Structure formats: C-alpha cells, structure tokens
Amino acid sequence: MELRQLKQLLVLSETLNFHRAAERLHMAQPPLSTAIKKLEQELGVQLFDRLPAGLQPTPAGQVVLRYARTTLFYAEEIRRAAREGASGEQGVLKVGFVGSSTYSLMPRLLSEFRKDYPRVDLIIEESTTVDLLRRLDAHTLDVALVRFPVLEPTAARITLLQPDHLMLAVPAGSRHAQSEDVALSDLAEEPFIGYSRTHVPGMHALVMYAFQQAGVVPRIAQEAIQVQTILSLVESGLGVAIVPAVARRQAGSNVRLVNVSQLAETIKVGIALAVHPDNATPTTANFVEMACRLMRPEPAPAASA
After folding, report:
1. Which pLDDT score is estimated for 84?
2. Which of 87, 103, 128 is the last residue of a domain?
3. HTH lysR-type domain: from which residue to which, for each copy (predicted)?
4. Which of the ends of the chain has fewer CB neighbours closer than 10 A, N or C?
5. The domain spanning residue 191 has which CATH number?
C-alpha cells in the first residue's frame, strides 16, 4: 500500500466517478481503475459499490477512508516539518481567533511574529471558541486565540494571555449610563442581550451563572455570537449586555460600559492561547514561545527609598 493509492482513493470518494477522479489526478482512467482494484484485493474488501448512478463507498470503504485521511494528514505533517526545518523559520502557520481578540491582542501578536519570522506564511481564520477547539483537536489549525475560561472539553493546552473582567454595556441614554457601578439585581427589568447557548456556550454559562447567583432571571431580548454584534445591538437600544472590558475599544459613541462589582470580583475572563499537544512543529513552538514571552506580566517597579 502506498500514499499514492490512498490519495487516489480519497479523490475517488469525493468525485464518486472514475473519469472525473482521473482528470483531477491528471492520469488516465484505466490505470486508476486498476489501482483501486489492486488496493481492494490487497485489503481483501470491496471499497466501492459500482451502481448505475455511480460509485458508493461500502461500510468497509468508509472505515478505510477515515484512516486514509488521517494517514495522509500525518504524511503531510512530516513533509511540512521537513520543509520548515529544525528552526521553524519558514513554513505555514494556521491561526484561529475569536472576534474579541482583535481589539488589541491579536494585532500585537501577529505583528511581532511577522517581524521575527517574515518567511512564515500566516493563515488566519475567525470563528467561535467551540469551533476553534474542535479544529485544533482535528488538527486543521495550529494555534488559536480563544475566550477564557474554556468550559468545553478539549485536548488542547490552554494558556491565559490577556486577563480581563466583565462589564455592563448600556445605551448612552440608559438610566445606568452615568452610574459608576451597577448591581445585577438592578437589571431584572431590563431587556438583556445574551450570548448564544449553542455557539458561545462558555460565555452563556458564565453570564447565566452570575445572574443566578444574584437571584435574577434576565429578560433575554436577543442572543448573538460576536461581542461586536452585541455592542451594535446595545447601541441600537435593544437592551443591555455583559461584555469583556477590552470591548470598550470598539464600543460606539452611543454605548457606555459600566462596572459591575459582583462580576469583577467573582468571574475572571480573558483571551487564551490554545495549542494541541500533538502539534509540535517548530513554527508552532516559535509562536507559542513568542506569545507567552510578549504577554508575560512585567515585574512591578521597586519601591523608592
């Protein structure tokens, strides 16, 4: 069995047609048909049912395809590691991020990494923490900037880079806009813009827990996924919301962020770096080292005599 055969198998599973698969593989159809037939003979199973409407993977074929994808993934990782070399000064780095990391952290990290490793190609993709962790576990991302704390099950290592706290976002015309501090109990009658339970379960759970501890059942008027969307809904006057303090950088002129003492004292949030322990490429290691060094808290100045 050769990697070439596994690649042919995957392309055929995508097209379900020998002629189209052969075109994609830049080869003639008869050699492809022969190669698949030899692979079936070697494995002792039929991988595809030949139907009038086209090909269909057999149950055995579906299992083989799953392992073929994994095998080709690791083969590509070996090739990539060889190309990057021991230093990790060239290659490709796939970075995922949540929207709230763009306020300050991500631009700083990417700028510094680009300066130190100009020959590394950066591929950056925005998504939710849940999706980014899933992709890290599936090895389709190298590193990710996710919301902290991480409540979802994952094999990734989580390192808090940018500690933060939660604040109340209100429209400028709200009765709370000029307050220095607001209690969660004061929000019982306010329409509330929450985080999607499905797409942002971590933040949803944290905010709902805080309200529960305060003995308040919020009046959910709307749910959203991204912090920037939530701020826009607040600015539109649709309600109030709990957001990370760093979001004040992107809040519009008609939004005020007010302290909520119960949240600042009991719930710690922030942006964290997530890396799968199996992803040990030099390029990834360089990014992790740079991020942790750059965001390491500076020691407090010595007191003057």
Report:
1. 65
2. 87
3. 1-58
4. C
5. 3.40.190.10
